[in-house]
Structures are given as C-alpha cells and as structure tokens.
Amino acid sequence: MSTARIRNAALARKVVPAAEAAALIRPGDTVGMSGFTGAGHPKAVPPLLAERIAAAHAAGDPFRIDLWTGASTAPELDGALAAADGIGLRLPYQSDPVARQKINAGDIDYVDVHLSHVAQLAWEGFLGPLDVAVVEVSGITEDGQLIPSSSVGNNKTWLDLAERVVLEVNSWQPAGLDGMHDVYYGTALPPNRRPVQLTRPHDRIGVPHLRVDPDKVVAVVETHAPDRNTPFSEPDEVARSIAGHLIEYLEHQVTRGRLPVELLPLQSGVGNVANAVLSGLQESRFEQLTAYTEVVQDGMLDLLRSGTLVSASATAFSLSPGAIAGFESQIEEFRDRILLRPQEISNHPEIVRRLGVLAMNGMIEADLYGNVNSTHLMGSRIQNGIGGSSDFARNAYVSFFLSPSTAKGGAISAIVPMVSHVDHTEHDVSVVVTEHGLADLRGLPPRRRAQLVIEKCAHPDYRPLLTDYYERAERDGHGRHTPHLLTEALSWHTRYLETGSMLPD
C-alpha cells in the first residue's frame, strides 16, 4: 500500500502490519474504537484481535476486553469480537445480532447510555481508565493532525484519554472528506463549562482535524476497506403512510403559525421509516430546510442534492452502497453543506433545545398515555439501545415517535396498555404516528391522551381491545388520573410470550 495518505514522517515510521497492531491490545484492556452506524470503524485490527482472542481461549487462557465506541459498528468489529467471546463489557450502543444474543444471554455486560453523555462520563472518570484507542482516519497531515473519516463519534475523547493509540488510515475513504468536519475542543467539566457558540445548524465552531499526542501512537495501520452500512429498502405502503401523516401535520402547523415555512432543524433516526419521511419531504412544498441530526442517510443526501435541504450537521454518514458512489462523485458540492461533529456536540441537549429541533425517531411500542419503549422486546430483551433518541426527544421543539402499528404479521401491537420498558416518558413525547394516523399529545391530560392514541394510532384489530381495557381501567382502577388495571397492564406481553400473539384466541 502507498503511504500517500500519511504525510507526517514521524507517524509514517510507525506503520506496521495490522496483526502487529492487534498484538498491542492486552487481555483486560479497555479499548475505545471509532465507528458510528457502520461508518468510520476500524476495519483491520478488530478481526485480527478476535483471532488472537479465539486462539487464547483455545489454549485455555482468558482474554476479554471492554469495548467503547461511538455507536453501532459492523460485523468485523462487534460481530467478530462477540463471536470470539472477547467482549466483557460494551457501551454505549450496538446493533449486531451476535452481540445482542450474547448480551441477552448474560454473556456480555451492556451499559446503554445516552450518546451525548458518553464523552462526559469518560472525562469524569466514571467509566474507568481507557487503555487503548483504535481510530480510523482518512489521512494524516504534515504536522500530524488527523483527517477524520466518515464518522467522528467519540474519537476526539478516545484520542485524548487513551494511554496508547492505534491509527487505521483508510484510503477507501474519499480524500474529499477533508474539510467536512468541525471538531470542537471547547468542552469542559463543571464548574469550567462555557456556552457552546452554535446558534445555526451550519455554524462552524471548531477545527477540521483531530489532534493526537504523537508519543501515544504505538502503531499506524494502512487499510483500504469500505464502510458497512445496510442498504435501505424502498418505502412500503406503511412507511409512506406514516410519512404522509407527519408531513401533513407539519404543513398544518405552518398554516397555524406554529412553525416557520422553512420549518426548524430536522433530526431523523436511522431506518426505512425515517428515510421514507425524508423522501416524503422531497415531494412536499417545503424548501430551505436544515438538519441538525446524528447521521446523514440516503434521503437526506437526496434533499441536499435537490436544494430542498440547504445544510446538514451530523456526526456520521449512514449511506447505502449506492448512495456512497453518488456522494463521492459530488463531494465537492457537498463539502460546504455537510458538517460532521463529535457526538457530544451533534447530540448536545442544550444546542438541540436552542435550535428548536424537530425530532423524528422510531419506537418499539407506545402505551395509552404516551410512554415510549425504544429499546426492549417484551420488557427484558435489549434490541439495540437508546442511542441519541432521548438527547433529542427531551429537548426537541416537537418530538415525534414513529412506528408501524403492528409487528410480526399483526401478532404484536405497537400500541399497548402499558409499555414493558420505559425509555421516553409521557413528558418527553409530543406526537405518536403510525400508518393509521397521528396523535398530538401536547397539552392533553392522560385520559384524553389515551382516547386519542386509540382513535388515531392503534391498528383496527387492537382498537376494541384497547378501548375495553381503558374503559374498565377508568371504572375499576385505583385512580382515575392515569387509569390502569395493574393485574392486566402487561398481560398482552405475557400472552404473546405464551401464545405467540397479543390477540386473544
């Protein structure tokens, strides 16, 4: 491989094979790795580390690491290390099926953390020391600055705090990424905090490159390997209906004078439903939109390309393989309109509140009163994690939660009497949307919320059951402010576990 991406002579002398770099990670180390939604994760060191771990286990030697990242990564990182039984503790977010299975089996300890809190917790020392950082970059400048790749995540914090640093320089990442990042070095712990001077989504407040103490760099590895983002499927009728309800609502809010004609900065979670909303905005009358979000995904690129979206601030890309090719061909046009920031800034609650972000996130289930579960299946099995949804939902101008009304072919209702796990309380949920309709819960007392959620959001197969539960709870419950029948509140989940369906026989 060419060292053209490594323009600093001292760091170029530290180039080693990936296996040699992986050998520098010791049993029991806490390792901070780059990566956010399959973008910008190290590609070479993790699978070779997994091979070392598997060999150690075969020889009867214990070998596990504690793993910190920005968010979810990819099979060659989370999947490979989990399959080798190499992870003792994982934080703050994951989406790998192998890791998920091991977490739910109790084989991996998992700390599910708000993404905006991770860097702060690390600096405060509550997570313990960080032994090694393994960070992908797209290049190294002459003076030793690091050009970030397709995600920033927690990389600034890992590079600052780690005792030892391994850099992966990935020449697959477009050279044109240089200049698209805004790395803010002004954060501090109380009592020394100062306001973050960001008042518009496209404000630059930092520098384009990451810093690293060259004496901490123990290895540099050259790679040429793609990110591992999942392709988006075409929006189905359900996703298009959800998008339609939401966009109609936004238009209504503009007409009522509650939103400006260019709306407010958009935040959109990852997934096909969120991407359908972005596609719907492309076909709407809205223009001059902005985004202050976690990830730039396919639909957001299309909005930028058409001019509907004038700028986007995020911490990572989450592009399908097809979208990546289009992005690379137009990277010069995008450079001044996309900013990638550390996730402690992209998800900063105070900035989200100041900008008045419109937050659109998915959910697993919502209950009659607007409590939302976005992390757990049937109360105790983690799916992925809370990610940044609460960073935005609690502080948004309007917080939307979106979901198809049923799952598993209708066997599961997304609207239930009581959620089996609470991530977002009724106090942080403004609007619930399914393919059947939209319930604006703001300013409503609990009993009116329940009636509206049933009427607007529940699937017709479940609407009579929800109505029956609510009416009996109002009549026979312990109190009438938030009526519940505690002996039945979670019976739908129990019925599903016993019979395979929330519907009674």
Structure in words:
- The structure is a single chain.
- Helices cover 31% and strands 19% of the residues.
- The protein is α/β, with parallel strands linked by helices and 505 residues long.
- A hairpin with a 3-residue loop joins strand 18 (376-377) and strand 19 (381-382).
- Helix 3 (45-58) packs parallel to helix 4, helix 8 packs across helix 9 and helix 9 (272-282) packs parallel to helix 10.
- It is globular and about 75 Å long.
Can you give keywords for this protein?
single chain, 505 residues, alpha/beta, 8-stranded mixed β-sheet, 5-stranded mixed β-sheet, 18 helices, 31% helix
Oligomer: single chain
Distance between the terminal alpha carbons, to the nearest Å? 64 Å
As a whole number of angstroms, the C-alpha radius of gyration is: 23 Å
**Strand residues, percent:** 15-25%
Give the arrangement of secondary structure elements.
Elements (H helix, E strand, L loop, with lengths): L8 H4 L5 H5 L7 E4 L11 H14 L6 E4 L6 H9 L3 E5 L5 H8 L4 E2 L7 H7 L7 E9 L5 E3 L6 H7 L2 E7 L46 E7 L13 H19 L10 E3 L3 H11 L6 E4 L2 E3 H9 L2 E6 L1 E3 L2 H9 L1 H4 L3 E3 L2 H4 L2 H7 L2 E5 L2 E3 L4 E2 L2 E2 L3 E2 L6 H5 L4 E5 L3 E2 L4 E2 L1 E2 L14 E4 L2 E4 L5 H12 L5 H14 L14 H9 L6
Parallel strand pairs: 1-2, 1-5, 2-3, 3-4, 5-7, 7-8, 9-15, 10-12, 11-13, 12-14, 15-20, 16-23, 20-24
Antiparallel strand pairs: 5-6, 16-17, 18-19, 21-22, 24-25
Helix pairs in contact: 3-4, 4-5, 8-9, 9-10, 16-17
